[in-house]
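Deviations from the work plan: none for this task. Representative record:
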Amino acid sequence: MARMKFLCDAERCIECNACVTACKNEHEIPWGVNRRRVVTINDGEPGERSISVACMHCSEAPCATVCPVDCFYTTNDGVVLHDKDICIGCGYCFYACPFGAPQFPETGAFGSRGKMDKCTFCAGGPEQANSSEEYRKYGRNRLAEGKLPLCAEMCSTKALLAGDGDKVSDIFRERVMYRGAGALQWGWGVAYDKQGVKG
Amino acid sequence: MTNSRSWILVLWFLALVAAGLAPSSLTLAESGEAPAVINNPNPGADLWRAVRGHLESPAVTQVTGFDTAVLVNEQGSRWTSIRVNELVPKSREWLIFVILLLGLLYMVAGPAKLQQGESGVEVQRHNVTARFIHWFMAVIFIVLGITGLILLFGRVALIPLIGKEAFGVVASLCKETHNFVGPLFPVAIALVFFNLVRGNLYERGDIKWILKGGGFFGTGHVSAGKFNPGEKILFWLTIFLGIGISVTGYVLDFPAIAAWVVSVSPDVSQYRHLMEFSHVLHTIIAIVFIALIFGHIFLATMLVPGTLSGMTTGKVDANWAKEHHDRWYDEIEVHSDKES
């Protein structure tokens, strides 16, 4: 079985936010909820880098560990999903998550937290694949259709990779070799003065 | 095992640094001028340090919301570990310990019998206002306590019994009830404070009462006013634990408050960190509070018979008043003499 992983190549991401928009459109995500977001470091300065981040589908997911109702489960593809029929919208997964993935629509009374929503790796939820019920709660199940997550599929610079971890690693390794050194070349700043990546 | 190995690594590294430093400081002393500092920028390390939130310039994102510009929340896993490995098991142990302790107290001290029996004459102890306020707080406390304990222990205690689907419904009800009833608790705290504070200030003889252990052990008579020091300790703990649990509860219940704290406090950088801190504090205070109220209910119903009627009908037996609250009894006797 494949082990699904996301990888964002910080050397390539141009902060176009197309992954965010594609995700919102594909799954018809409500206002105020963003399953994916792009964060830019050192914005407007030399060394500026952008990274697209969503649920990383952790091997030992802290959200699943801390959930008081135990609504998370991991699929055979290594995708971390949750059951919205069990979720109570307590917000603990948001406090625990390293990546800020869990989102809460303000659907409860007086705008309190509704049931949690997060990136599903385009793999839907526990309902029958591609049923209208599944689409309403979790969005489209592209994995069941034999497709990969849309955010990565339509990334213009192919900075965002999604798929089997081994294949994603192979692609990234090839890129690193082509660049000639590490992902961001350690020591180049000293050895070659301004010819390093920061120059 | 891994821990000791990492310590050895750290020591080895320190030794290496010390060995490296020794000759360089010698050459420094000889030449008398500072060596040129090699600035070794490591773009990879710099980037990943920035990703973890250790930045000079803040990260930006177009997505609005709580902590959206933070790529990695470093404290989340620690909080998860505290909740799962510390709060849940230790809360259970603490509550079991307190119940066993109260059982032991009952076996040693037994129910406190009135030496002269019941007189059949009743005196007024708590008026309608005091009783209403007491039960107002009690109902809120019990509702919050039960729903809170279900949310804390449900995953380990209830899911194996009733399954995830059924527990999801129960937990959802508990969460909503807890969130909507909770904000009333500070109202109850304030009412109890203003209603009972006058009788719960320090009086002469309180120290003596405490030194005698409240009269549970031995037969000596222990003098007390309307409220004995034990009840005063309960009162003040209720006020202070109540304030603590209300403040942390309001932060957890109203994200807007947390967002405001983050915006004004330089020490709190992330909304989530404040929530994690409040959650741990809220749970600890709650468990101590519940243990305290276990003790209160146990004393008022089982250990000292005749006490409960003071809070239900408002009247207590005259002999109960004489033996447990003699100075208060003298006061009301003088008062009623004047009236008649």
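The helical segments of chain A are 18-27, 62-66, 92-96, 132-138, 150-153, 165-179, 188-191.
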